[in-house]
Design brief:
Layout: E1 22-23, H1 38-43, E2 56-58, E3 61-68, E4 86-90, E5 92-95, E6 122-129, E7 139-144, E8 147-148, E9 150-155, E10 158-163, E11 170-173, E12 183-190, E13 206-209, E14 213-218, E15 221-232, E16 239-249, E17 258-265, E18 268-275, E19 278-280, E20 293-303, E21 317-324, E22 330-338, E23 343-346, E24 349-352, E25 355-356, E26 359-364, H2 377-390, E27 393-396, H3 403-412, E28 415-417, H4 426-433, H5 445-460, E29 466-468, H6 480-489, E30 495-499, E31 518-522, H7 532-540, H8 543-548, E32 551-556, H9 557-562, H10 574-582, E33 586-592, E34 597-602, E35 612-620, E36 623-631, E37 640-644, E38 658-666, E39 677-686, H11 695-698, E40 701-702, E41 712-716, E42 719-724, E43 727-732, E44 737-743, E45 746-750, E46 761-764, H12 774-783, E47 788-799, E48 803-814, E49 821-830, E50 835-842, E51 854-862, E52 867-874, E53 887-894, H13 895-898, E54 912-921, E55 927-941, E56 943-945, E57 954-956, E58 962-971, E59 993-1004
Parallel strand pairs: 26-27, 26-32, 27-28, 28-29, 30-31, 31-32
Antiparallel strand pairs: 1-10, 2-14, 3-4, 3-6, 5-13, 6-12, 7-11, 7-14, 8-13, 9-10, 9-12, 15-16, 16-20, 17-18, 17-21, 19-20, 21-22, 23-24, 24-25, 33-34, 34-37, 35-36, 35-38, 38-39, 40-59, 41-42, 42-43, 43-44, 44-45, 46-51, 47-48, 48-49, 49-50, 50-59, 51-58, 52-53, 52-54, 54-55, 55-58, 55-59, ...
Helix pairs in contact: 2-3, 5-6, 7-10
């Protein structure tokens, strides 16, 4: 057993030496797949070429496997074992389980960089392999597409090599180690190594073969490396293609091959040229077989009739590079996808193909968060299509990625900011922050970073989707030499500088040494949960951002995607619809609504608007009045045209409030959007007339007919009881709240004994703050809104037989402080069982209340209501001022559709705004109707909020038969800045008063 594997020997083991980055690793080069000839390569289109080449033998599947909790348990003769193994699927991994209490992303050892304990676990993988007979004279490589996190490779009892940072592609030349018949391959996998202190971005405490593993045969005349560059000539406006191919020969009898370059598209050859290589010197020490000759073949050619590649139109071409022997026979072929594009930076602004580009990014991890394995290709493709439907760029997380991922992004037009190859573990950062030191920016760590960056750039340099390189995940966390190193490796791509807010957009000396190669990305850190979507729309639509930054990070894709499931059923699309709306291809503005005249502006960079169709609807009181479709005219990018929607001459009912709803649909399918995909929506109010009562409400029947009941008012200890024929309402004078309300056989409100903490009806002024409410938090905390308690001053009650009136005078203040907010609640009970609730709140100015989180009423309803019908914004949830995500109409959903998903604690409430009326109904069609003389919002939840802290505290109701139902006359959108400083005195001793109304009517016929 070589001493470089075991600890405690004369040499430290490879995995505990920071300077040991690799042993016998195959030299780095661009990702290529070898084929025997061009025809075979061209036909390999039904799957990824990796899985179709006759020169590839996949080694995925079942392997022998044995886990040792300590490397000291590893037998010296382990490589002679042929039995006693378990079985495991490759790719596969398992938790290291260093500490029972350790989280997957926690560092499990004492901080002692650059050393890890010498008792680390080890996973042993074994399998027998036999080579195809046709490979006998070919060179062979073992290719590892992902190892967590370091490994030794042993073949037929001989050490092949070692690599750390195994999540990148690593290759070993194994030509001399293989023989005919069965070959025994062992791979020793270590979950940690000396440089793991830089793996904070992908630390999962797992060990295993986490990606594809295969053998690749290489002919003796072959392409070793390929570099592709495209640029748009500013004078001729023609695309220039530059290709450099490094070719090798391993036979004494063979001269360097001629190289044939073939550019094709969909099977049609665009150009073909044969080039003789120039001899070059190549370091052949890393090759298992001696390199006899090396050459460089260069192609520089103008391509006048090609289409550019961009995120909007990802036009791709196929480049086949073929080695020809002395008889002009094909010896080998490789393929490279070509996208004609050019990335430039001018005055800090990013340009793609000389057109300004603003990136809307999400953070994306293509690895499974639980297993650390690459997700299946089919699943990954589906997910990336959905990403591309909403954003044009991603920022990679989680470390290196299989090149197949970038090939998918090429086809989808999805721009990629390559992931930084290092991030110090958070425990190390926390430990050194006290001394304000950053040891990872000095040696020997800097050498590790440069090696990883070199590996990444060399592997991915030809992928058109790779927009820029990132040397750090944090502001001022990079080194000038590392930035210069990246620029030298790939001058054609810019570097990324991150800023957490506009205030941070000042010069960073590590990156701004050359402003022409740095783009600035704004990462504000807002959450897309709940009303955060509203804040994002404000940031995304801020024109000032376009001059300051090249992109905006919208958050982690898993969080964004989770918004699809935040509510169940139909109400699914808050965050995704908001992002799609911000990226809409056209802007529609009203010129003359009565005449149906609009302006139409093309917001794209390269698309004509005749790719889209406009669907329009006119809706009055929730009912469709008129509808039609219009194919949009071929407006060029950046230009504006007039648009007429033909509804002006059509006779319509003039006494109803009507709304015009516009949706823009993509006509034909592309690789990411299906045909008729909705790309944006808008709504306009048409000639608002005096609204009349909704006809739908006229068909509802009161549970108790008015005029047929006589009410009486009784007092019993601390209770007020209003009763009539089959009617019962109980009001608690101590708490100023309704305890029970019955009409005939239906109980609508009921007070459950819950230690006095929750009541069936109460004014609410608080909602849980979100991350984008930072500017308001200190104001709300100063007012003590999260700690308000109610004091009942007096109760007034009266009854004339037809109506009963109960008036509660209350004050509110934080615990241990004086009351500062007053309210008058008047309950008017009618003989039909209907209740009118009027809330009056005094303040110096009525708009003062708009600075509060909310002003509303909470009711605890019985859970028998499964249907919700309303007139207002829908069908999905809406936040105040969130334009374009919903439209006005009449909608119906189930209670489950409306309630927030308990899996997402940050989305405690999902309100529906601008509601005129809402009704809840059971299976029989009986229920409650809520009406107001002013628009309101409503929401439902199973979770009853008990505001006892600055962030609110969610408690699960012990009474599953109750619905936490809130009616809000004011619900403040998240984000923004306080318009004024609020004081307690603003609400004390004043004469101005804000008044709100709501009517509750028991009805049938729903």
């Amino acid at each position: 057993m070589p001493s470089r594997i075991f600890p405690g020997r004369s040499e430290k083991p490879d995995w505990n030496r920071i300077e040991c980055l690799e042993r016998n690793r195959y030299p780095r080069h661009a990702y290529l797949v070898q084929f025997p000839d061009q025809e075979t390569c061209e036909r390999a289109v039904e799957d990824n070429r990796r899985y179709l080449s006759p020169f590839i033998q996949m080694l995925t599947g079942a392997w022998d496997y044995k886990w040792f909790d300590s490397i000291l348990q590893l037998p010296d003769n382990i490589f002679s074992y042929r039995s006693g193994f378990d079985r495991i699927d490759v790719p596969g991994s398992r938790l290291a389980n260093i500490r029972a209490q350790c989280e997957a992303s926690d560092w499990p050892f004492v901080l002692d960089p650059p050393r890890v304990p010498e008792l680390i676990p080890v996973a042993v993988y074994h399998r027998s392999i036999e080579l195809p007979h046709s490979w006998g004279t070919l060179r062979k490589k073992l290719v590892l597409m992902g190892v967590a996190a370091a490994c030794h490779v042993v073949l037929n009892g001989k050490l092949v090599g070692y690599v750390q940072d195994g999540r990148q592609m690593n290759e070993f030349d194994v030509t001399s180690r293989l023989h005919d018949g069965a070959n025994e391959l062992f791979i020793l996998v270590y979950p940690y190594h000396a440089a793991s202190y830089l793996d904070g971005h992908c630390l999962q405490n797992r060990a295993g073969l986490a990606g594809d593993i295969y053998l690749e045969a290489t002919p003796h005349l072959s392409v070793f490396d390929l570099s592709v560059h495209t640029r748009l000539d500013p004078i001729s406006s023609q695309w220039q293609l530059s290709v450099q191919a490094t070719v090798l020969t391993f036979k004494v009898t063979q001269e360097l091959p001629q190289v044939r370059f073939t550019l094709a598209r969909e099977g049609h050859t665009i150009l073909e040229q044969v080039v003789n290589p120039q001899k070059i010197q190549l370091d052949g020490t890393a090759f298992d077989t001696k390199v006899l000759q090396a050459g460089l073949s260069s192609l520089h050619v103008a391509c006048p009739d090609v289409d550019a590649w961009s995120d909007e139109q990802p036009e791709l071409y196929d480049l086949f590079v073929t080695c020809l022997d002395a008889s002009s026979r094909e010896a080998s072929t490789v393929h490279q996808t070509i996208g004609f594009c050019e990335r430039t930076v001018r005055d800090g602004q990013l340009f793609l193909n000389h057109q300004p580009l603003l990136l809307h990014l999400v953070d994306y991890n293509p690895l499974d968060s639980q297993t650390g394995l690459a997700r299946p290709l089919s699943s990954l493709a589906r997910d990336l299509r959905q990403v591309r439907q909403h954003v044009n760029a991603i920022r990679l997380l989680g470390g290196p990625v299989d090149p197949i991922f970038f090939e998918l992004c090429n086809h989808l037009g999805l721009l990629v900011l390559a992931s930084p190859t290092v991030q110090p573990i958070r425990e190390w950062q926390a430990a050194v922050n006290k001394e304000n030191e950053k040891p990872w920016l000095s040696e020997p760590w800097l050498t590790v970073q440069k090696d990883r960056l070199y590996n990444q750039v060399t592997l991915l340099k030809n992928q058109p989707c790779v927009l820029a390189w990132t040397t750090s995940r944090q502001l001022n966390e990079t080194d000038l030499s590392l930035s210069n190193w990246a620029r030298g490796l790939d001058p054609a791509r810019p570097l990324v500088r991150l800023a957490g807010a506009k205030a941070e957009l000042e010069k960073d000396p590590a990156l701004d040494a050359s402003l022409g190669s740095v783009i600035q990305i704004l990462d504000p850190g807002y959450s897309l949960q709940g009303g955060g979507t509203h804040r994002f729309l404000q940031v995304m639509n801020d024109e000032a951002n376009r001059s300051l930054v090249s992109g905006l990070v919208l958050g982690d894709w898993q969080d964004v995607q989770a918004q699809v499931h935040t509510t169940k059923g139909r109400a699914q699309s808050v965050a995704l619809s908001a992002i799609r709306q911000a990226n809409r291809p056209c802007e529609i503005a009203a010129i003359d609504l009565a005449a149906g005249q609009f302006s139409l502006k093309n917001r794209t960079r390269s698309l004509k608007l005749d790719l889209f169709r406009l669907h329009w609807q006119i809706v009055a009181s929730g009912r469709l009045i008129l509808a039609g479709e219009i194919d949009l005219p071929p407006v060029l990018p950046g230009e504006t045209s007039n648009l007429v929607i033909p509804y002006a001459d059509v006779e319509r009912t003039q006494d109803l409030m009507s709304m015009l709803h516009l949706t823009v649909h993509q006509i034909d399918a592309n690789l990411w959007n299906p045909a008729d995909f909705v790309v944006s929506s808008d709504s306009f109010a048409l000639g608002l007339q005096t609204p009349i009562r909704d006809p739908f409400l006229d068909q509802l029947i009161p549970v108790i007919q008015p005029g047929r009941n006589r009410l009486r008012l009784e007092q019993d200890r601390h209770l007020l009881v209003v009763s009539g024929h089959r009617f019962w309402l109980v009001f608690n004078r101590i708490t100023a709240q309704i305890e029970s309300w019955r009409c005939k056989d239906h109980e609508y409100l009921a007070f459950p004994p819950m230690n006095g903490q929750l009541a069936t009806s109460a004014l609410v002024f608080w909602r849980p703050p979100l991350s984008q409410d930072r500017a308001w938090s200190h104001v709300w905390e100063k007012l003590g809104l999260c700690r308000l308690e109610q004091v009942v001053d007096r109760i007034e009650a009266d009854c004339d037989g037809e109506t009963a009136s109960i008036v509660a005078h209350c004050r509110y203040g934080p615990a241990s402080e004086k009351t500062w907010l007053a309210a008058r609640l008047q309950y008017t009970i009618h003989d039909s069982g209907k209740i009118d609730i009027q809330v009056s709140i005094p303040c110096q100015k009525q708009d003062l209340l708009s600075e509060l989180p909310r002003v509303g009423l909470r009711l605890l309803l019985r859970h028998q209501y499964e249907r919700i019908i309303w007139s207002g914004q829908g069908p999905g949830p809406s936040w105040p001022d969130l334009r374009g995500l919903s439209y006005a109409g009449q909608f119906e959903q189930t209670l489950s559709d409306l309630m927030s998903d308990p899996r997402h604690a940050g989305q405690a409430e999902v309100p529906h705004d601008q509601t005129q009326w809402v009704a809840v109904a059971d299976e029989s069609g009986s229920g409650l109707l809520f009406e107001s003389n002013q628009p309101f919002s409503f929401c439902a939840s199973d979770r009853l909020a008990e505001a006892r802290s600055g962030h609110g505290h969610e408690v699960k109701s012990a009474h599953q038969s109750l619905i936490d139902w809130k009616i809000d006359w004011h619900y403040k959108p998240s984000g923004g800045q306080p318009g004024q400083t609020l004081e307690h005195e603003d609400f004390i001793g004043t004469q101005d008063c804000a008044t709100y109304y709501i009517t509750l009517t028991p009805v049938t016929g729903l």
